[in-house]
Amino acid sequence: MPEYKQFPLSDTAEGLTEADILAWRVKPGDTVTVNQIVVEIETAKAAVELPIPWAGVITELHVEPGQTVEVGTPILTMDVDPGGTAAPAPAAPAVVEAEEEMKPLVGYGSKAGGTKRRARKNPNVALVASDAPNATLAASHAPNATLGRSPEPAAPVTAKLGGGYVPLAKPPVRKLAKDLGVDLHALTGSADGGVITREDVERAANGSAVPAVVDAGYDPATRERRVPIKGVRKATAAAMVQSAFSAPHVTEFLTVDVTPMMDMREKLKKSREFSGVKLTPLAFAAKAVCLAAKRTPDVNAVWDEAAQEIVYQDYVHLGIAAATPRGLVVPKIRDADSLSLKELAVALTELTDVAREGKTTPAAMLGGTFTITNVGVFGVDTGTPIINPGESAILAVGAIRDTPWVVDGEIQVRKVMQLSLSFDHRVVDGQQGSEFLADVGALLADPAVAITY
After folding, report:
1. In this predicted model, what pLDDT tens digit does every residue of 124-137 receive, in sequence order?
2. Lowest mean pLDDT across 207-211, 326-330, 345-349
3. Are residues 193 and 266 part of one domain?
4. I need a surface site. Which of 34, 85, 359, 371 has the fewest CB within 10 A?
């Protein structure tokens, strides 16, 4: 006889309570294998592909793309014994034992014997978002809301997210679209789940592509477009509000002549050791932060309100704020203080590439101790960044500009940038904040200073 199991939405990271269904990779009637990807979801941290823990035949999908679903809600039903006597699926399939169903999926969730943390000390923005009201239709939480048994699933043209529509396409397809000057937002994906293919891009380049579906949130009468607040945008907003109104922010500024750093960068780029490495000014800033944090550990500490303690961390898990199509994410470079300049440059390239593709895993965004935000990449000189929850400081790195500068009593054109440091005044006093910012500035003004640390 057929044996039916329901697959619930599992917690893909610590403390998540809900996720948005982006796209199904299967439809009723499909045969799947163990660990086959069946659905793509967006949590408060990132887009995640979920594998199925069983083999069998999909019999029913319970939620539609675009819906927000609570953790634990069944999202599909499958027959794990399709070789049995054929029989229609029961109207309300019995749920498999909760203990079996709610185990973390392969590759997700916390691991036994992993790094121990204090119960309160988790800068995960999802912990903030979990208390916010769910911006979704009531029907999205109904366990048995189904798509019916049609052999053809409803395939979304794009993923509908907090910031609008994000085209679903693999990195090589995105590169092809960029090379051919094709806007992916204007395309309808022909592959399963609305994924845009190479053929879709090539047709668009030849002027024969099908236009994308108009955003359903647009009202022609009012000429306004309303988008539900959820996913990464919802989590980011909640985290920033919590930080802004719980930690007393102080921001200091420093203008630095980084001409020696830029000269050193050009020399290193021509060296054999850095061949093929994308060496950016951000890599120098990351190295400077790690070195300066050793001299001023307060900026790498955290305020524990519940325990009434300041926790000093003997490691730097460096967060890099990255703007992505899904919103702001802050993936971390673990133990960045143990990496060389070259290793930091490689790690930064990998981190930003993955983030821009929307493939940053939830685990990669947990447990940061200090963050850098590179506003200079947008041509901005400086700003007053908001500290990430669970951290005590954040550095904004501005654009590098040719600027008149006094050198040995004479005016010269130099490479100049601005730095701004926001810090939690409960943990970091003005002296410590100023010393740290001065150290970072000195290291960028003359990288040779590093040998004195």
Report:
1. 322 222 233 333 32
2. 207-211
3. no
4. 85
Annotated catalytic residue within 62, 185, 249, 425:
425
Q: Quick one: three-class SS letters along 37-90?
A: EEEEEECCCCEEEEECCCCEEEEEECCCCCCEEECCCEEEEEECCCCCCCCCCC
d(CA 290, CA 382): 21
Instruction: Determine how many CB atoms are found less than 10 A away from the CB of residue 311.
Output: 16
- CB 286, CB 348: distance < 8 Å: yes
Would residue 116 count as lying in a domain? no
Which residues are paired to 187 by β-bridges? 211
For the record, the structure tokens of 100 come out as 């079996």
**pLDDT tens-digit readout, 285-308:** 999 999 999 999 999 999 998 889
Cα–Cα dist 336/389, whole Å: 19
Query: What does the DSSP 8-state code read for residue 104?
Result: P
Number of structural domains (the chain) is 3
Residue among 330, 331, 293 at smallest CA distance from 313: 293
Residue 17: give its domain's CATH number. 2.40.50.100
- Using DSSP's 3-state secondary structure scheme, residue 77 falls into strand
62 is catalytic: no
Cα distances from 150 to residues 58, 63, 358, in angstroms, run 12, 14, 30
Domain shared by 210 and 252, yes or no: no
Q: Do residues 79 and 177 both lie within one domain? A: no
Range of the domain at 209: 165-214
Cα–Cα separations (whole angstroms), residue 54 to 85, 284, 332, 388:
19, 47, 32, 39
Per-residue model confidence (pLDDT) at position 193 = 59
The string of pLDDT tens digits covering residues 373-409 is: 999 999 999 999 999 989 999 999 999 999 999 999 9
For residue 216 the two structure tokens come to: 């359903």
Most confident of 34-43, 91-100, 185-194, 217-226: 34-43
The 3-state DSSP class for residue 68 equals: strand
Strands of 154-308 (E only): list them: 159-161, 164-166, 218-219, 224-225, 249-257, 301-304
Residue 11 within any structural domain of the chain: yes
Q: In angstroms, how far is CA 424 from the centroid of its own chain?
A: 24
Q: Is residue 231, in this structure, part of any structural domain at all?
A: no
Contact at 8 Å (CB) between 443 and 287?
yes
Residue after which a domain boundary falls, among 99, 115, 135? 99
CA atoms within 13 A on the CB side of 410: 3
CA geometry: angle at 24 spanning 22 and 30, to 5°?
A: 175
In this structure, the answer to whether residues 176 and 287 fall within a common structural domain is no
